[in-house]
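Hey,
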Amino acid sequence: MPQANTLPFLAAMLAASAVAGVAWRAKSLTGSGAFAAAGVGTMALVAGIPWGALLIGWFVLTAAASRAGRAQKAARTAGIVAKPAARDAWQVLANGGVFALGAAVAVAAPAWAPTAALAAAGALTAAGADTLATEFGTWWGGTPWSLRNARRVPPGTSGAMSTVGTMAMIVGAVLLGAAAAALGLVPGSAVPVLALAGITGAFTDTVIGAAAQERRWCALCAMDTEQSVHACGKPTVRVGGWGRLDNDVVNLVGSLTGALMALMIEFAA
């Protein structure tokens, strides 16, 4: 029998699918993204109401940040970013997959639930901090600096930072860590741990994006891009980074870093 703060599988699946459907109708998720989000949400709600509430809160916050100034951000990043604003399945799993794995551990091994919750919250905090940094950085952040060559680069370029984006990253990590504690997923003493884990994971994402993420070039437009086929219709060529190491993989690494950092800080204390 499920505990008082959990949902039976069918109820969890219906609730998660309803939320994912709303997000799909709002064009925050693609069809594949909605399917993946329903799966992640189901696992979270089966693990417990606090798990599901944090995931929903995270999605509302990041989706709102993505929608804010969408037209301006699309204009500023046109021809650079590989995917549109609506998240597909790979993006959902890159950001929420570690959290779902933590929820699965909590369900399968209740004795490990507190540890799994801390790691999962660290992963989601890192993913959220990175998302907020990207969204506010491309909206209000001016022209960012690349960590790879210390030069100004167009907004939306992976591995770049701006003052506004960095502030959004820090504030987002603190807010999400506090939310995890307020919802009862982790104790209040874990808020600083999650904030630091989130900042570390988001910054790791940026460093890997600068140092190793695949970089492509459109010869027709003479422009750096992440698109395999540029907005102009011409196929691009890889000019740097590791092949197939795209933004989704980098986001997954950042999320995993947040989870591991939360555990390392907690067990080192």
